[in-house]
Structure formats: C-alpha cells, structure tokens
Amino acid sequence: RKPVTVASLLRMKERGEKIACLTAYDFSFAVALDRAGVDVILVGDSLGMVMQGRETTLPVTMENMIYHARCVARAHTAALLMVDMPFMSHYTVAEALHNAGRLMKEGGARMVKLEGTGEQAEIVNQLTVAGIPVCAHLGLRPQAVHKLGGYRVQGREEAAARAMLEDARVLEQAGADMLLLECVPAGLVAEITAATRVPVIGIGAGGECDGQILVLQDMLGLTPGRIPRFSRNFMPEGGSIPGALEAYVAAVRGRTFPAAEHTF
Ligand code: KIV
Ligand code: NA
C-alpha cells in the first residue's frame, strides 16, 4: 500500500472516495488498522479517557501525546499519522510551533490536529509556514467542554452555523490541510464540505462529508456504558478485531456508515 499523504487525501475528496479514519494509541492496533486499510490514524487526546480513565481530555499532557504517538509511529503505517495537540498547547504562536514541532520530531506525526475556531487562523498559518500539515477540529471541541456547557451538538442556531462556515473558510485560507467536524448537523456539514477544497472528516456529522472517524474503543464495543449516539459497534458484524476494522472501512467507503440514526 502506498503511503497516504496530504496530496492523496485531497485527490480522494476530488474523486468522491470516502476517507476512513480511526484513533489508535499503541503499536499493535496501529498495525491492525493499517492492515484493514484505514487511511488516517489519529492519536487522539481521547487517550485521556480510553487509555487513562479520565473524565475529560483536559489533563492530557504533551508527554502523554508524544509517548502514544511514538508507540503508533513504530508501526510505520501507510496510513497517515495525525496527532492531537493537547489542551493549552496551542494558544500562542510560539507555543503552538514548539509543541507541534515536538509532535512531528519526537512523536513521528505527519499531521497535527488542533481544536479551534477562526481565531486560530494565525497559528494555523504559522504552522503552515513551518511545513507542518494541520487539521482544524471544529464544532464540538471537547477541550472547551466547560465553556460549551457539556458535550452537545454545535451549529444548530443560524448564527452559530454561519460562524462555523466562516471559521472553516478562514482556517482553510490560513493553510489547514483538513477539517474535522464533531457533532454538527448534517446540513451544515454538507455546506462546509461543498465550500472547501480540503477534505472534511466527520464524527457525529452525517454522511455528506469526505470521510469519517470514530474512537477505536467505541467501534470495538470496549467502551464501558453507552457509546455516543453517532458511533457504532462493528464487533457483532465483524466477528473479530480485524473483521470489525475491515467492516468499518467497508461501511465508510460504501456509505452505509453513518446511517440516519447516527446523524444530527
Ligand atoms: O481525540 C479524539 O479521539 C478525537 C476524535 C474523536 C476526532 O479528536
Ligand atoms: Na481529540
């Protein structure tokens, strides 16, 4: 399999081929995801919950991110390795450059993801100048959970929807190579996807964006308690871990996931 790059993801969007992404936090799962044909592996700061048992992503540190990124990077996957910038690591240009540089140099990242709005355009621009691919995470931003007042769908009201579309445009203009929309109504996601040239990946964002991402433990049925409404357990259908990963990739490519019941 040829390595997935920013350029090949762009071509997938242009051709209308859906991009299948999943999170992973260690070597063994990174190998399994790669064998299943996953395009992008995210070392998400969701590791705070699924690796560390925390309530939110806020306590996750740069050292945590680098440790897990290195574990995944040792799999030398064809899948593109994207790594999250943790809470409070990217709010000044100097800190964002320093910390994104560490994720690339020490963690082996090929792209960094940061939660933000149009306010982060200058930071995205400076990372772009430095040659660091960036994914901008819009909509529900879990690092802002205390400001947003909980984990809830974003962009429902007209003014918020217009602001998110504008943020997407501004961030693309600033150099973002990919956008990620979390818990955003499907109609707004379709608008943003049509208005941008770079791939738009969704989670709880309907089927009209360019690709999908889920938290690995949710789609393997390992999450204690209820999984989010937008997620789906692929284990019953896949029958094994490799089978579930392949079923997920096939469902994303074949547009059977997400279905209406996963969409806002
Ligand atoms: O940290 C994470 O796993 C994420 C995905 C849910 C998009 O940011
Ligand atoms: Na994250």
TrEMBL record:
Cofactor: Mg(2+)
UniProt: 3-methyl-2-oxobutanoate binding residues: D45, S46, D84, K113
Pathway(s) it belongs to: Cofactor biosynthesis; (R)-pantothenate biosynthesis; (R)-pantoate from 3-methyl-2-oxobutanoate: step 1/2
Catalytic class of the enzyme: transferase
GO cellular component: cytoplasm
Location in the cell: Cytoplasm
EC number: 2.1.2.11
Gene Ontology MF annotations: 3-methyl-2-oxobutanoate hydroxymethyltransferase activity; magnesium ion binding
Primary site of residence: cytoplasm
Pfam families noted in UniProt: Pantoate_transf
UniProt key word Magnesium: yes
Active site: E182
Keyword annotations: Cytoplasm, Magnesium, Metal-binding, Pantothenate biosynthesis, Transferase
UniProt-listed GO biological process terms: pantothenate biosynthetic process
InterPro entries reported for this sequence: Pantoate_hydroxy_MeTrfase, Pyrv/PenolPyrv_kinase-like_dom, Pyrv_kinase-like_dom_sf
Free-text remark on how the cofactor is bound: Binds 1 Mg(2+) ion per subunit.
Binding site for Mg(2+): D45, D84, E115
Catalytic activity: (6R)-5,10-methylene-5,6,7,8-tetrahydrofolate + 3-methyl-2-oxobutanoate + H2O = 2-dehydropantoate + (6S)-5,6,7,8-tetrahydrofolate
HAMAP family reported in the protein's UniProt record: PanB
Family: Belongs to the PanB family.
Task performed by this protein: Catalyzes the reversible reaction in which hydroxymethyl group from 5,10-methylenetetrahydrofolate is transferred onto alpha-ketoisovalerate to form ketopantoate.
Subunit structure: Homodecamer; pentamer of dimers.
Entry-linked NCBIfam families: panB, PRK00311.1
UniProt protein name: 3-methyl-2-oxobutanoate hydroxymethyltransferase
Classification of source organism: Bacteria, Pseudomonadati, Pseudomonadota, Gammaproteobacteria, Chromatiales
Gene: panB
